Amino acid sequence: MGFRQYKFGAAGVGLMLGFSMCITLFGPSNDFRSGVSTWVGLDKQLSLGRVIGFSYEDPTVSGDGKPVTVILDKDPKTGEAIDPPQRFYVYKAGTKFSPGVNHPELLGPGVEDLSLSIGKIKAADVSSGAVFTVSKGEFNGEEIDYIENVTATRGWSPEETLRAAGDENSRYVGKGKTIYISEGCWWCHTLLPEQTQDWQVFGAPPFLGDFNGEMPTAFGSDRKAPDLLHVAARNSSREWMEMHFFNPRLVQPNSIMPRFDYLWGKTDADGNTIDYAKWRAEYMAYLNGESIYPPEVPKPAPDSEVRALIDWILTSLK
Amino acid sequence: MLLKYLFAKNDEIPPGSATIFFGFSSIFWFVVGTGLGSFNAAKLAFPDWVTGTEMFAFGHMRQVHVLAVILGWISMAFGMTMMYMTPALGNTKLWSEKLGLWTVFLWNIGLSLGLLLLWLGFTSGREYNDLIWPIDLVVICGVLLPLGINVWMTIAHRKTQGIYITNWFFGACIFMVIVVFVVGQSPELFGLTGLTEAYLTFWFAHNVLGLWITPVAAAIAYYTIPKLTGNPLYSHRIAHLHFWAIIAFYSTPASHHLMSAPLPEWLKSFASVEGVLILIPAIAFVANILLTMKGKWSMFVENVETKFSITGVLLAIPLNMQGGFQQTRAINWYVHGTGWIVAHAHLALLGMSSFLEAAAVYFGLQQMLRRKLYSLTLANLHYWFFLVGFCIYWISMTIAGLIQGAGKIYEVPYIDVVVAEHPYMIARWVGGTMVFTGNVVWLYNMWMTAREGTLVPAGKYAHELAYER
Amino acid sequence: MQNKLTIGKTWAVLLVAAFTTGMGNGSVFGAAVMCAVGRGPYESWGGWGAEAFSPSTFSGFIDVMMIVFGIAFAIIVGAAMSKHGEIEAQRDNTGW
Asked: A248 CB near a chain B CB, below 8 Å?
């Protein structure tokens, strides 16, 4: 017997681990593959781009190289009205496409077929950029959503789409979620209402097809603060969000959320330098009862991080 | 010292060098990790404490605390114990002292770099797997693989016929943690997305805890308790029941971390059942160790290493009772995502695991330095700060979790839960700070041991000598 | 030799280590029972102060169970250890 029993033992460890990996990794992968992308799933992956965390195109996790979501009420090419206004996802030249465009099999049966045949997503080219949208089509008698490459089907170029939208109709959703990840918001907030009475407070839990192509999903596991998956449905005020991020105690005296005033950067919307020391001194005076009103929260600059973060919240978390 | 040995011939490096460097690095990271924990807890209790700078924002520091403790303290303490237990149990020398020193060197460099980048916000955004994938590759190739090679080769070159249970655990767990790390990186390396990514994140998180942190800690106790008491292990057979039950059952329940996500129902049910089966290895382990203490229970109050070790074993009882049952659907419904889970995680890492490792680091460093512990008073001070601090933390977070769970089920406005939790957040900060203080004392005590501890004569164990201070 | 494990010598470890161990077991027991039998009305969700320990509430019941189990476990371990101490004193602590 001697040494042989240890060979059996070592083989046993390998076999058992391999068996458990078969059950826990290969087993569910079949279920995951059958998930048909919902509108939420398609909107998410198109507005977020390839990957949100650390990547080649954005090594510092600051939101570079992400697509821009624009909301248009008329066709930039023909001038025809779009009613109701629709979301378009602008990938400028060089911006990496979302996983579903590169690997349509991730979209799920049906969505994949329509996106390839009617949506022409394979015609998109990273070097010249593309504009996408989510359209409705029919597959096997059922209405489903699919990705449409508007650059191929309607001839829109990324530049003219962005120009037509202007800053006021642009939502920096991809950059916003990047800030959510890099600032660690997800250590306290979850994006997963639980299958409990949570439904009635935080809204419906997500469906199987709501995540196709999203990376990272950042569900969060430790809830020190409310769930945010549908927060914009509860509160859609941009002004409230700005005050709350600058100093949460302005709108909720008992909040334990950190201040995120540093996301404003150096200057405000008018290009004036933000004097944080002065603001804090005035805020302390307000806390001590020396002044009646707290100081005004500066308007964030269009390219500031907090603007992108609020864009993401108000656009995606409904 | 370390640099001198990195390029020395293997035979010229004194045996035990790798253990000593590993040991001091692990204590250092323990101080850093618990210090960060205490700082973070203060921010939860007093949100305006140190505010307005990106570097000191809670979201930038929380993950640094977690990884400094897991990869710095716990895993390095494992490395340290492997460096001295594996050869001792094989009645041989460590296969390569030089490789061990290179491992500890690369580990410290890689971890410092990884944590610094993480602190700056370079993250993959995946819990427990937050390090960006280049750093993860450093962890796999520069840390786990060399550690594994050293342990496997030492076991292969053993001069004993059998392999003791501790070495079974060491060899198998390093193999499994390497597999888990590689699979855990696949979302980043191969661009897996969506639910697959979410599931793999927690597959990784669960298996790092279940196949690395808790079983290796238990394996350490299988060495320290018989060594300290002089009793043989009660039953090697029961220990093997523990070993095989861990591998068979505890490599599967990953999805019980995602009970409320839209994962396949069969997977959740399967994970839940397998999760309850943790009680088999857990009871085997606890019973085996406590029966080994037969006739030497007085050491529990008289010998500081035994005190640490047995406390860790006792804490394994509630750990596995909670762990086995809180992941069933009924209880998970109530406690998921609350402070209860935070308390449970600390019961595993700071309670059970850290106490067992602290005992092994105390014991191993004295053995390898051939010096008696500098001060018993300081060691007892460490023990009590550690234990009382941990208990304050655990109890306050469990109760806070129950309040949070009640708030969830009764649909209380969330801010009322935050208000109700406030006193427990302060208690949490007090407990965490006590643990940190205890660890500072420990680092000082160990440093003084290395410099001024009484020399242990050959053929004696350090714990057999009387204290002089 | 004298008994080295009387309650006078072990109370400190019992109070902390054994009590916490019992509390951990009590927490899951309480949670399991409460999940099985149900909960009280909304007003008694147990948000503040002594309310939290009201045995009629979900969290209150579990808190009480934790304390009961903690005391019980400390007593069990304490009794067992003093018994061990007696036996070890007889055997002169030379091991078995």
From this structure: yes
Residue ranges of the domains in chain C?
A: 7-90
Q: Which of A294-303, B262-271, C37-46 has the lowest mean pLDDT?
A: C37-46
Sequence-separated (6 or more) residues with CB below 8 Å from residue B469 = B374, B375, B376, B377
Within B46-74, residue ranges assigned H as helices are: 58-67
d(C-alpha B351, C-alpha B347), whole Å? 4
Give the pLDDT band of residue C41 (cuts 50, 70, 90). low
Q: What is the spatial distance between Cα B22 and Cα B31, in angstroms, rounded to a whole number? A: 14
pLDDT digits (tens, 9 = 90+) for A168-223: 999 999 999 999 999 999 999 999 998 766 777 898 889 889 999 998 999 999 99
Q: Quick check: B286 and B241 in contact, CB under 8 A?
A: no
| pTM of the complete model | 0.94
- Mutation target to probe the B interface, by most B beta carbons within 10 A, among A40, A62, A187 is A187
Domains of chain A and any CATH numbers: 39-172 (no CATH), 181-316 (1.10.760.10)
Cis peptide before A84 (omega within 30 of 0): yes
Cα Rg, chain A, nearest whole Å = 23
Radius of gyration of chain C (CA): 19
Contacts of A236 (CB under 8 A, 6+ apart): A314
Higher pLDDT, A57 or B4: A57
Q: How far apart are CA B16 and CA B84, in angstroms?
A: 7
**Which token pair is A22?**
């078969």
H helices of chain A, in order, are 4-21, 27-33, 39-48, 99-102, 111-117, 150-153, 158-165, 173-182, 198-202, 231-234, 238-246, 276-287, 305-316
Nearest to B62 by CA among B132, B117, B118: B118
SS3 assignment, position B455 = strand
Shortest Cα distance, chain B CAs vs residue A187, angstroms? 7
Work out the burial of residue A224: count CB atoms within 10 Å of its CB; fewer than 13 is exposed, 13-18 middle, 19 or more buried: buried
Choose among B295, B318, B406: nearest Cβ to C59: B406
Q: Which chains touch C (3 or more CB pairs under 8 A)?
A: B
Q: Chain B residue closest to A197 (CA)? A: B409
Q: What is the CATH number of domain B164-370?
A: 1.20.210.10
Whose tokens are 């359209």? That residue is: A135
Best B64, B133, B193 member to test A by mutation, with max A CBs in 10 Å, is: B193
What residues contact residue B223 under an 8 Å CB cut-off, 6+ apart? Answer: B81, B85, B88, B89, B164, B166, B360
Contacts of A305 (CB under 8 A, 6+ apart): A62, A63, A175, A179, A263, A264, A265
Please, are residues A201 and B415 in contact by the beta-carbon 8 Å criterion?
no
Q: Kindly state the greatest CA–CA separation across chain B.
A: 67
A281 lies within 8 A of chain B by CB: no
Listed residue (A173, A9, A182) closest to A98, CA to CA: A173
